[in-house]
Every structure is written in C-alpha cells, then in structure tokens.
Fold:
Amino acid sequence: MHQGGCRKYLVGIDLGGTKIAVAVVDTVGQVLQRVQEWTRGEEGPERVLARINCLFDAALAKAGVSAEQVAGIGIGAPGIVDWKEGIVHNLTNLPGWRNVNLKERFEQRYSLPVAVDNDANAAALGEYLFGSGRGVRHMLYLTISTGIGGGIIQDGRLVHGAWGVAGEVGHMVLDPQGELCNCGNCGCWETISSGSAIARQVRRRIARGEQSMVTELAGGGEIKAEHVFQARQLGDELAAAVIRRALLYLGVGVANLVNVLNPERVVIGGGVANVGEVLFEPVRRQVRELGFGPAARAEIVPAALGKDAGVVGAAALVWNMLQ
Ligand SMILES: [Zn+2]
Structure:
C-alpha cells in the first residue's frame, strides 16, 4: 500500500428521489465500495445533504481509501441542473431544492474538485467512458424506467444545449392528442413508452372491463411493467397489445433521434431495458426502417453499468472534468 498522496479514486454520488447511493470508484470505472440509504427528501435539503456526508465517510471507510487519495467528487441529480455553476434548480420528487449550489457546498467541505450534472447525463458519460459506449465518438444514451431519460455525446463531449435541457428526450411530444404528462404537455414519449406508461395503460384497460392475467401476476398488488412483460410471455393478449404499441413508439422515437443526432451507437439502459431482446428487436427494426441514409446503421445495444450507472456516471463527470 504505497499509494500515499496519489489521487487515484473518485467518489460518485447518485442523489435520487428515493435513494442516495455513494460509491468509491477507480479511474477505469470499477466500483470499490458502494453504500446507499433512503433519501427521505420530505425532510428537506439540509437533512439530505447531512445524509450524503455520512454516506461519503462510510464509503471511504469501507473502501479503505483516505480523503487524500480522492481526485474528485461527481454528483448526479434528477432534474434541471446548472452544470456549469453546479446549482440544482428543481429536483424531481425532491421538494425544496431551489437554487442549491451543490458544487460550492461540496468543494468547501472536502476541498476537492466537484462536478454536478443531471442523472441521465451522468449515466450517459459513464457508459461512454466505462461501459457500452467505449470505442465510439458519437453516442446516444437512453434510460427507460418510470420515465424516459437521455444523454447525448457528440464528438466525445456531453451535449448540454444553451440552458442544460439537451437530452430531455422523454418530453418529445409524439402524440399531441395523447395522455397528460407530469411536465404539463400531452403525449410526451414517456407517457407512451416508459415502464409506468405500460403499467398505467394496462390498469386503465382492466378497469374498463378487459380481461388480463396481469391482475393475478401482480398478486392483488400494484400492476407494474414487469408483470405486463411476464403476461405477454404467457400469451396474454391485452399485455401483448399494450407492449406492441409502447415498443412501436419506442422504436419510432429512437429512429427520430438517430436521424437528428446520427450516433454511431445507441446505448439503452434502465429497468425496462432488462427485458432484453423483446425490447431491442423492435427498436432495431424501426431504426433500420426509418433511419435516414447511413444513420440507419446505428448500433442499438444494452447498457453495461446496470445498477451502478448512477454512481459510476457521477464519478465519470468529475473524471471527465479533470482530464
Ligand atoms: Zn412531458
């Protein structure tokens, strides 16, 4: 152990609406130790920040890494983030986070370089540097879970746009007459193709009297997207119809993005993408059919970082900043 003052580790903080995870990560994206806790966001920012500090100390202690060995801290947060200043403006499912300067708070406390960005951008950079995006220069990252998030890498750089909104693909309107979204618009992509959209559509059709084995698969509890995919596997017609439509629009949305951005590779992660080929096959088909010219050649691949996407992505933010 002759690491001495050599700063070869990163700390990645994934501040989520439900959970906070903190990990010590090395500079090739391997997680040494990871600790997590419920966010309990209703207690307000100060309590949450205190909780992050505890997790930070616990992660370093478990990894046997001293603060002197840490090169920097990366933080991914859900919502609108001023990535240049490191200020979070409005966090999804976290009340009271208005204009909190995370970068300054952490720089002052730890005297280390700090990078802050939204969680999907962090995960995109994580996949680009350490996961399924390695080897390309132009990559689109998508996460399909309760919502749909995205991050864009163009020529090796994360694209933020003028005001940090670039990559908010979940709010592309694909059906102006469609369902109301949390954002106030109707027919956003995530109201059609996300996991919660799939579950909601099935719940609604069952409530209207349609038959489906999804009800039994959920065991009387809340119907989730995973139950719908299970039912489809077992030949359930309602589940198959809802999934067919969701994945058709998923493919159309990806093809639109491929035509706008011309990525070499599209990396898809998030809980819903764990269903595998059931999801990837129709997306690839739409991209081949609708891709304009050579854009149709974009590879469509699963994400590699899995449950560590948040913390490794956060670590990637600061590693990228230090390069
Ligand atoms: Zn929306």
About this structure: The chain has a mean pLDDT of 95. Residues 237-261 form the longest helix (25 residues).
